[in-house]
Design brief:
alpha/beta, about 45% helix, globular, binds zinc ion
Amino acid sequence: MYLAMDDIGSDKVEKINKYSNPKDKWRKIDEIALVYGFWGIQISGMYKKKFGLDLYNIPYFICDYRLTYHIGGLYYLLSEDDVINCNDMIEQSLNIAESYGMEDVSFHPPFIYENIDKRHLSKDYLKKIITKWLPKYKNHGISLSLETHVSPEYFIFKNLDDFAEFASSYPDLGVLIDVSHNFYDGYKENNIIEILGNLKITGLHLSDSLVGVEFETGTHLPVGKGNIKFQKILQHFKDKDIYGALEIRGNSRDILSSYFNLNKYII
Ligand SMILES: [Zn+2]
C-alpha cells in the first residue's frame, strides 16, 4: 500500500492560486506532494474547480507519481437522462485516465435522498452502467471502482452488506473503502474488513471520524482527531498494491501529521 495525496491543505490551496500560469500551479502541486512524502496523487475535479486546471493537459512531471482519478460529487440515477450523464462522466474519466497513465477511476454510488422508494430502479441503472464500462476499462488496464458510501438516507445501498452483495457480482469491479464514512455509519474496523475484505479493494480514503456528532464535524478529520484505530485497518491492507488517499479537511500541518501517523503502520 502506498499513500496518495488527495486534499492538499487549505493554506497550500492559496499558495497554488498565487500563480496564474497552469504549469507553475502544477509545479507547486508537485513540490507540495514531494515535501509531504506522497508516492501517489489522486486527481479529482478539485483541480479544475479550485485551481482552474485543465485535466486534459497534465504535465509529464506529475505523471511520475502513481496517479488515480476520483469522480466526486453527488448524482442521481433515476432516469434515462441521468444514465446518459453518468455514461458521459465515466467515459470522460476513462479518457483522462488513459491519457496520463492513471491506474484507477473511482466514483460514488448514486444519490437517492428523498427517492428512497426508487432504490431498485437506481440499482438497475447502475448495473447497466457498470456492465457497459467494466470491460472497456479492463481493456485499457485501468480499474473502475465504486466507493463504499452507504449512509442509507443519502445513497442507494441500505448498508455495507447490501453494498458488498452488489459489488461481489462484478469480480472486476474495484472497491474504494471510505473508512471515515463507514466508521461514522457505525461500522468498526473489524466489521469493515469482514464485510468488504474479500472484494477487489483498489484503494482507501483515509481520514478520522467521530460518531454521534453532525456529519460535517464527524468525518474527514485529521488522523488522531477521531476514534478510528488505523493500525487495525492498515495492517490488514499494507501488503496489498492499493492506495490510501488522505481525504482530510484541514491545513498542511493536519495533513503532514496525518501522513506520519498513517505511514508508520505501512512501512
Ligand atoms: Zn471518500
